[in-house]
Amino acid sequence: MAEITRYRPDDKRAVEALYRRVFGNDAAEASRLRWEWQYRHNPNNPGHEPEIWIAREGPAIVGQYATMPVKLSVKGREVRGSWGMDVMVAPERQRQGLGEVLFRTWDRNVGASLGLGLSDSSYRLFQKLKWPDVGPVPCLVKPLTRRALRRPNWPLPLNRLVSALTLPIVLIVARTRPLRAEVRLIQRFDDSFTALWDELAPKFDLAVRRDAAYLNWKYVSAPHVRYSIAVLRRNDRNVGYAVYRHLHEPRGRVTLIADFLADPDDEEALRTLLHWVDREARQADSDKIRIFATHAGFRRVLRRSGYFQVKSTVEFVVKINGVDVDSAFYENTDNWHVTLGDSDQDR
Ligand SMILES: CC(C)(COP(=O)(O)OP(=O)(O)OC[C@H]1O[C@@H](n2cnc3c(N)ncnc32)[C@H](O)[C@@H]1OP(=O)(O)O)[C@@H](O)C(=O)NCCC(=O)NCCS
Q1: How far is the CA of 86 from the centre of ligand 1 (A)?
Q2: Residue whose CA is closest, atom 30 of ligand 1?
Q3: What pLDDT, in 10s, does the model give residues 38-56?
Q4: How far is 198 from 287, CA to CA, in rounded Å?
Q5: Contact 340, 314 (CB under 8 A)
Q6: Nearest to residue 342, comparing CAs of 46, 134, 68, 28?
Q7: 102 CA from centroid of ligand 1 (Å)
Q8: Whose alpha carbon is nearest atom 4 of ligand 1?
Q9: What's the CA-to-centroid distance between 15 and ligand 1, angstroms?
Q10: Cβ pair 316, 134 in contact under 8 A
C-alpha cells in the first residue's frame, strides 16, 4: 500500500521523471521552467514549502498531487483554499485507488479544494468522489475580424463562407468607441490594489483574494508568459484592472483576458477597461478577444460590449471545508468571481 507524505527536496528528480512519463517531454520541460515560481515563490506559501503530496511505495514515487494555495473569500470570510493542479499516478498503478487517496489527503488538509480545467480522468474522479460540480466557467468571445469565427476543424471553404456571412455583424461589434476615463499600463501592482480588493471582496460570494503580493506573483513574475496590465483610474485612485496577453492559435490571433477586477455594481468601470483591451487587441492584430467569467453582472457588461458566450471546456469543481455552506451555495454562482487566471490554466 502506498504511503502519502509531503514533498521533500530530494524527491525532485523522481517527480520530474514521473511527470515526463505521465504528461510527456514537452509538458515536463514546461513544468520544470515554472516549478520554482509556481511552488516555492507563491506568497500564500510563506515557508516556501511546496504544497505537494507524494505517494510512495518503498523508495519509489508512484504519484503526486501538486497544488497552489490561495486565500479564498467565501461570503466575506477568508478560507485557506487550494487549487489542485498537477495530479498524476504512474501509468501501471492507475485505476487502483491511488488517485482517490491523493485527492482525499489533499482535501483533508485544506479549507477549500478547487479544480479548474480538468483532464477527463481527473474530472471523472472528482465526480466519483462527489465534489460539487459548478462548472464550466463561462467563456465569452468578442470577434474583431472576419477570421474570428474560423474553426481549426472546419474545411477552408466552410471557414471562408462563415467569415463572409458574418462580416457585417463583426464590423458592427468591433467598431471602436472612445475611452471615457483614464486607463494606464502598469508594471507592478502597488498596495492600493490590496485596498481595492478589501473594498470589493464582500461583493463576491466566492473569489480568490487578489492582493498586491498575489497579483505580482501571478501576473508580473510568471516565468512562462508575459502579461500586460491595464489599470482604470478615477480621482487619482486605481479602481480596476485587466490582465491580458496576445497569443497565436492555429486559426488566428487571440487576445486573452486572463484576469480582471472592478466593482461589479459599476458597469462603466469594466466597460472602460474592455474598450482599452479592444484597442490593444486591434493594435496587436488579434482576430478576437477571449475571456472567462462566472459573475453574472460582469457577463452582462461583456455581452453589452460585443462579447458572445461560447461553449466552455474549462470545468470547475469546488468543495468548501473551512466554513459551513449549504448545498444551495453551490447552485448559484452568479456572484462568484472566477477567471481563467485563477488557477494555472494559462500555460
Ligand atoms: C487522474 C489520475 C491521477 C487518477 O488516478 P487513479 O489512481 O487512476 O484514480 P483512482 O484509481 O483512485 O480512481 C479511478 C477513478 O477515476 C476516474 N478515472 C481515472 N482514470 C480514468 C480514465 N482514464 N478514464 C475515465 N475515468 C478515469 C474514474 O472515475 C475511475 O473510477 P473507476 O475506476 O471506478 O471507473 C490518473 O488517472 C492520472 O494520472 N491521469 C493522467 C494525468 C492526468 O490526467 N492528470 C490530471 C490533470 S488535471
Answers
A1: 13
A2: 125
A3: 999 999 987 889 999 999 9
A4: 36
A5: yes
A6: 68
A7: 11
A8: 99
A9: 18
A10: yes
Cβ of residue 116 lying under 6 Å from some atom of ligand 1? no
Residue 176 sits at φ, ψ, to 5 deg, of -80, 145
Q: Which atom of ligand 1 is nearest to the CA of 94?
A: 8
Closest by CA to 148, choosing from 255, 270, 260, 271, is 255
Burial class (CB within 10 angstroms; exposed 0-12, middle 13-18, buried 19+) of 102: buried
Residue nearest to atom 7 of ligand 1 (CA): 99
Average pLDDT over every residue of 137-151: 88
Q: How far is CA 59 from CA 3, 56, 62, 96, in A?
A: 11, 7, 10, 19
Which of 303, 307, 295, 309 lies closest to 263 in space, CA to CA?
A: 295
Q: Which of 226, 139, 144 is nearest to 185 (CA)?
A: 226
User: What are 71-94's pLDDT values in tens digits?
Assistant: 999 999 999 999 999 999 999 999
Centre of ligand 1 to C-alpha 121, Å, is 4
pTM: 0.92
Sign of the dihedral defined by the CA atoms of residues 205, 207, 213, 215, in that order: negative
Name the one residue in this structure whose C-alpha cell is 505580482.
Answer: 216
